[in-house]
Amino acid sequence: MDTLSPLLDSLRVQAAAVGHFDFGLPWCFAWDYAPAHCLMVLEGRCWWAEPDASPGAGIWLEPGDALVVLRKGRYTLGSAPGLARLPWGEVWEASMPPDLRFDRHESPPAAMRLSWNAGVVERTQLLTLAFGFEDGEHHPLLASLPDRLRVPRPAHASPWTASALGFLGNESGRGLPGFAAQARRLAELLLNDLLRRHLLSSPAHAAGWLQGLTDPALARALFAMHRKPGQHWTLARLAQQAGLSRTVFSERFLARVGETPMRYLLAWRMHCARDLLARQLPVGDVAARLGYASERAFRQAFKRLTGTTPMAFARQQRRGPPGPDHLFSESTHSPCSSLSHSSRP
């Protein structure tokens, strides 16, 4: 029973940009970055730390390591700890060629290549992927993860990963047609691979539904909710999926996942609702697909959980994602679009 794939599949990435950075030592930048992104070390090593961290309080990233930063924040990235920092934004603006500047709603035509201290022999090379998530702040997978994840190089790297990184790096500056579409899909695959590796390597420290996946009985119930959110689920039916009594199931679910089964089901349904509304499905159709007996009941549940109405949310999605720091392009795949119509008896 694969309980992780439905959640990874529902985490759609709208990749914004690919960067290939080549820094001659020494170097150190103060990053203040809003979009979610990941840094992958191709050559050399680098030091990552919180901006006000005490000396030595940071992590080394070695070749093959990746750092996934899921939320806005500031940090220091350099070739060694204790170096004077340059504002990354100023370096970026001064170094980026005019033909690779782009509107925030567009994808750049090529990977963005930036070189620093070009004449120095000892160097660090980084590949960066910046991306936005649809429904990111509400997605149960992202909500259960910390702000940043260090994903060490695997003992046996997948051949496709090396090929993907090679393609993204080699395309730097070429500007060939179709690059943005390919980069968006490769970024999604790479991010899924990094998150999957992290989740599989640290189940004991997982929070929320991730902890539930370590319990075979709860995993069966979670799988059922993720696969068929529009089913007429009751506490008794979910307990039956888990093979437990209602009392034992409810108590174990709350202890492991941190919320009741019905509250978790509501949050997952609202995630799927936002996904379907973003694709401009009529509110009535969304309500039916998610198992609501009436559109009114769905509207009330949606507003209670999100603070806005389904129609207002759909209108906002038509206007495009807000914020000057996120770069989005269209995506047509919806893992919730295949939900079958079902309604409560």
> Total number of helical segments?
13
Helix-strand topology string: HEEEEEEEEHEEHEHHHHHHHHHH
Q: For the record, what is the CATH homologous superfamily label of the largest domain? A: Jelly Rolls
Give the CATH class of the largest domain: Mainly Beta
Instruction: Report the sheet-strand fraction.
Output: 15-25%
Shape: elongated
Radius of gyration: 22 Å
How do you describe this structure in short?
With 345 residues, the chain is an alpha+beta fold.
Describe this structure in words.
- 40% of the residues lie in helices and 19% in strands.
- It is of the alpha+beta class.
- α7 (216-227) packs across α8 (235-242) and α10 crosses α12 (295-306).
- The radius of gyration is 22 Å and the shape is elongated.
List the helices and strands and how they pair.
Blueprint: H1 5-10, E1 13-24, E2 28-33, E3 36-43, E4 46-49, E5 59-61, E6 66-69, E7 73-78, E8 86-87, H2 88-95, E9 112-116, E10 123-133, H3 140-143, E11 148-151, H4 159-170, H5 179-201, H6 209-213, H7 216-227, H8 235-242, H9 246-257, H10 261-278, H11 283-289, H12 295-306, H13 310-319
Feature tags:
Jelly Rolls, alpha+beta, elongated, 2 domains, five-stranded mixed sheet, 345 residues, single chain, disordered C terminus, six-stranded mixed sheet
